[in-house]
Amino acid sequence: MKNKILVLGAVIVGVLGFSAFTSMDQKKDYNDYKAQNLQVLPEDISYEHLEGAMKAFNIALGVKCNHCHAPSKADPSKLDFASDDNPLKEVTRHMMRMTTEINEKYFKDFTKDGVVMQVGCNTCHNGQAQPEMRIMY
Fold this sequence. Notes:
By secondary structure, the protein is mostly helical. It has helices at residues 2-20, 47-61, 87-106, 121-125; strands at 70-71, 79-80, 111-112, 115-116.
């Protein structure tokens, strides 16, 4: 029992010692970040809001960034976020405009339990890149 406590203590000391030599703040400073080639989202969008919107697309469509963003011509292992080479990027822009129009026209003042209810990507996509189409009679 005493050996277990000594081992646990040594592990804790080791972790704390190791963490003293590593940077806890690995988040980059994006205060000067300037997005390029934004046509639907606001040009002055913060990095945090842009990243949040992109992650929401990832979840709603069940895809990764390379679904809409083309590879960089200089380094194909990286993505060129400003490029329009991937035609799905324009489809996404069209869908963003469509949902905005639907929300402004039909759901602007629609609230339920004090929450404004609106449509978004997940309304149709439900985690799939291609939404399931149903015949409506």
